[in-house]
Write a structure and sequence with these properties.
The chain is of the alpha+beta class. The protein contains five helices and 14 strands. The protein folds into two domains: 131 residues, no CATH class; 76 residues, no CATH class. It is 26% helix and 31% strand. The strands form four sheets. A five-stranded antiparallel beta sheet has the order 1-2-5-12-11. Helix 2 crosses helix 4 and helix 4 packs antiparallel against helix 5. It is elongated, with a radius of gyration of 25 Å. It starts with a helix and ends in a 6-residue tail after the last helix. It comes from Nitrosopumilus cobalaminigenes. This is Peptidase.
Length: 229
């Protein structure tokens, strides 16, 4: 027998309309979860939220939870993380609760986020919110602060030596000031840095090649054990 989530959402909306304003959305558990560097705010009634994560392949935000009785989840979704659009207009999300399509209430929409209230039954454990546009963390361009170009230029011009340049790059990566795509590290080799990498650094500092080409040189050094991170 199918779970009647649609009737539950109507009951939810009706109850919200007749409750005193002070008691609306008076839930037991409220928090913020970081999902791919975006803050996702939530409030859950009659349950505990375990995780929130994005599946970019299915354009789906997934919530896992432990529920003690019928209740609701209120969630504010950053548009840059997940959105649902038809042309340039907002479209509805496709929401599943334990695999069953479920109606929901959208209680707020801003230029940056959308807030949904989703009902669930006691024992439900997974909510999937499917949109049309989702962040793909694997397609993001590496982030390199512009001032690092100064160091690269000085190194290419011989104003700082290889050791100083390597130590600087290691520090920037370890402190997450400089973002490098996941790269398998090789064993420390003690090899000299190939001249083409230094040439790349100089060209990059002068704006003759893009960030990706410079990053490829850094990845080469990591893979070949020249740069340990």
């Amino acid at each position: 027998m199918l779970k009647n989530h649609k009737s539950l959402i109507f009951t939810l909306i009706l109850s919200l309309s007749i409750l005193p304003l002070s008691s609306q959305f008076s839930y037991g558990d409220t928090g913020i979860v970081s999902v791919d560097s975006f803050d996702v705010e939530y409030t859950i009634e009659n349950g505990v939220l375990d995780t929130i994560f994005l599946d970019p392949d299915f354009i789906e935000l997934i919530l896992t939870m432990d529920t003690t009785s019928d209740g609701t989840v209120e969630i504010t979704i950053p548009r840059s993380l997940l959105d649902s659009k038809f042309d340039t207009s907002d479209d509805v999300f496709f929401v599943l609760v334990d695999g069953f399509e479920t109606d929901y209430a959208e209680i707020e929409s801003t230029t940056d986020s959308r807030t949904l209230v989703i009902p669930f039954f006691s024992g439900d454990s997974v909510i999937g919110i499917i949109g049309t546009d989702a962040l793909n963390p694997f397609s993001l361009e590496p982030e390199i602060p512009s001032w690092i170009k100064n160091n690269a230029g000085w190194w290419a011009d011989g104003q700082i030596d290889d050791t100083a340049f390597i130590q600087g790059i290691q520090y920037l990566i370890s402190e997450e000031i400089m973002s490098i795509p996941q790269t398998e590290s090789g064993e420390s080799s003690g090899n000299e840095i190939p001249s083409w990498i230094k040439n790349n650094a100089g060209w990059w500092a002068d704006g003759q090649i893009d960030d990706t080409a410079f990053i490829q040189g850094i990845q080469f050094m990591i893979t070949n054990g020249i740069l340990q991170v």
